[in-house]
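TL;DR need structure tokens for one chain.
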Amino acid sequence: MTLRANFLLLVLSLGMLTLGCGESGAGDTTAQTAYVQPTGPRTIVTTDGEIDDVDSFIRMLLYANEFRLEGLVYSSSMWHYKGDGKGTPFTSKMAMTREIYGERTELRWPGTTWMDTLLLAYARVYPNLRLHSPSYPHPDSLKAMVRVGNIDFEGSMARDTEGSDWIKAKLLDEDPEPIYLQVWGGTNTIARALKSIEEEYGGTAGWEAVYSKVCAKAILYAILDQDATYREYIAPNWPDLKVFYNANQFWCFAYPWKRAVPEPWHPYLEGGFMREHLIQGHGPLLAQYYSYGDGQQQAGDPEHLHGVALDSFNLGRLGQSWGPFEPYDFISEGDSPAYLHLVDVGLGNLEHPQYGGWGGRLVPSDSLPNRWEDGEGARDFNPFTDTLDATFPQTRWVPAIQEDFAARADWCVKPFAEANHAPLVGLAHPETLEVLPGEALTLKAVAEDPDGDTLEYQWWQYAEVDSYPGVLNLEYAAREELQLLVPENMESGQELHLVVAVTDAAEHPMTRYRRVILRAR
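>> reply
TL;DR here they are.
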């Protein structure tokens, strides 16, 4: 019997509700022959091909067993567009790029073959990835979902494209499950899909039902506004569409990460870690990951000079250095929070984005219904600066996320027995407990590691998410069990969020979590 089967029996015997495993088949040390469909959420990626999109894409492929990828769509943005091939001039509607670039006929367009190149590399490591999880999608299935969307100019949405038609079909299919539309560039191809639906059904007897169906399924996860199509078309015409908007928290995974990430955690993103544990010696897919001074140059983007070696000739030619960065340092993955939000690590953030998770923490907008944002109301206390920080709800997970990435990099080249896999974590009681002020409680995590590694436990209060305004003094929090007294001043309906992090003792430790919500009666 596998470790997973043993653990399931343990779960049933303890009456636990759910498992935050996130690693399909990790307990089976034999090669799997049958593909296992991922059980995570449906998602479509739209991307403008910026170099940080390429790096986000590479990492995403290593997490492709955690969600149901259903579309990979080229789109445009304020930073990247192809042009119409006729020399038509274009001026950005976005203030920043309008000032920087003025009128252009095209802009830094990386082409529509880079996904194919990366999927060929994925195909080469796919057999080894399946030793660690049978839920990795076949390379052919990923190749079959690549589509070219609206790419002529920033905000292009005047006509249907293969990409917009693909998104339209997914929004109208009979699968009622939500579908997360990841916006790594502009929203224009998604806007075109929605516009096509409106043109086909608007004014008909079935429009209300179609509108409700689409709004019930579609969830946009946008990293900034990179064209004007959301504000000009989507927001006014589809006000009931759910939108997750990340404008602050993603910076710890973007170009200025040295300013957003606390200095003690910089090593997780610096060249020593990136080169040894991710880029080199981990197969052909990660070898194409962009980093500083790696010698790589993206086709079509003359501004991608990050890989150029900084010898005396190039310092004079470029007129600038890399600033504070060193060879093989992390450049950017600004769009990765869009899919990290979908990875079930046990925090319950998918259904409740305000709870916080690996994709950050988003709270309901004060002015716009059906929109979650990461502004002032979503700040977390940063212990390194002793302030409430708009970036820290994402930054706080950087060490765990980077170690998890490195562990998965090993999956590309190592057999199961030589790599690390995430612990399986559950609770010996329900996730939500109705409690009385002054009540004595014992909370208990139950976990097992597929590799037999020693496990470390750490309980902590996610005070920024609580509706209870106080802070608990948690004693003996580094154990499976946490004993505490419910605060005497906790009022009826208030909630306390307690999180247990369970980490295995490995070269690249992996962490999974469980959240317990105490709700006062």
